[in-house]
Amino acid sequence: MNIKHLALFVRVATTHNITQAAESLGISPAVASSYLNKLEQELGTKLLDRTTRSVSLTTEGKAFLYHAEDVLSSVDTAKASVGKGAVVPSGTLHIAAPASFGRMHLISVINGFVELYPQLTVDLRLSDTRVSVMEDDVDIVFQSTVLADNDIGAIKLADDIKVVCASPSYLSRYGLPTHPSELKLHNCITFSGKQHWTFQVETNLHNIKASGSLSIDHDEAIRDASVEGMGISINSTWSVYQHLANGELIQVLSNYSLTPDSFIYMTYSKHRQLTPKIRAFIDFAKDYIGETPYWDEIVTNSGRLMR
């Protein structure tokens, strides 16, 4: 399979324009059309739907695109391993992340990333359903739990610090709990299916079955319900840092840490290794977020986060 044909196909998939793709690769539109025809003939299937106004991928073209990008990235990595060629991240980087974290933090990361690498595009999928780098067509998955799997590589992005918090209005009406056991007297907002809250109390673990009038399956909605004064909830600092810093939420039970510890990881398939685009994004994301995540610095500097 001709690498030039693959490179052109990927470029057409990005630009949706054969002439523009051809110019970017330094070939004529006629040559580009012949390359695409040869690729389709070799595969025995139609990859593109072409009209006089636009070009779009067929179902087969969409399925083939990810693998074509993977081949091109592998070629770049192979060249780099022997010191040949300047390896510049290119193609499309497919990223999956939980909806709330992605909306709040990854958009700004990606904005800076594509400014640094304008020849690269990003396909960001935000969903709270499980996504796997081994089972789905993605390069990087952001997740908090990493199962033992020799096929999956995981790089820690940040600590995922959890805090218990409530609004000033709620605490003024119902009082401030001073021990985890007192939570049974409060209205707790829980994440759907996760009613058990575990605290470290001296040398022992103290398990609480939280209950209340509201259970939600969305991080930001839990936070917003707490801001509205509906109850006490557990939130990640990346979700509530602004609300803690401005006083809309108050951390409670700060003397008792929640267990187990949680972390945010970037996972990738070891079968693809760290291709230039994956390596570049991981490095950029780590630098952008910081050794101490910027959200934790903001709320710590405000004096409203106790750890």
TrEMBL record:
Keyword Protein transport, does the record have it?
no
Sorted keywords for this record are: DNA-binding, Transcription, Transcription regulation
Transmembrane domains' residue ranges: none
Q: Name one GO molecular function term.
A: DNA-binding transcription factor activity
InterPro entries, from UniProt?
A: LysR-type_TF_proteobact-type, LysR_HTH_N, LysR_subst-bd, WH-like_DNA-bd_sf, WH_DNA-bd_sf
Q: Which GO terms describe its biological process?
A: DNA-templated transcription
Q: Which residues form the HTH lysR-type domain?
A: 1-58
Q: Classify the source by domain of life.
A: Bacteria
**Homology family:** Belongs to the LysR transcriptional regulatory family.
What PANTHER family does the annotation carry? HTH-TYPE TRANSCRIPTIONAL ACTIVATOR TTDR-RELATED, HTH-TYPE TRANSCRIPTIONAL REGULATOR
Instruction: Output this protein's name.
Output: LysR family transcriptional regulator
Q: State the organism named in the record.
A: Alteromonas sediminis
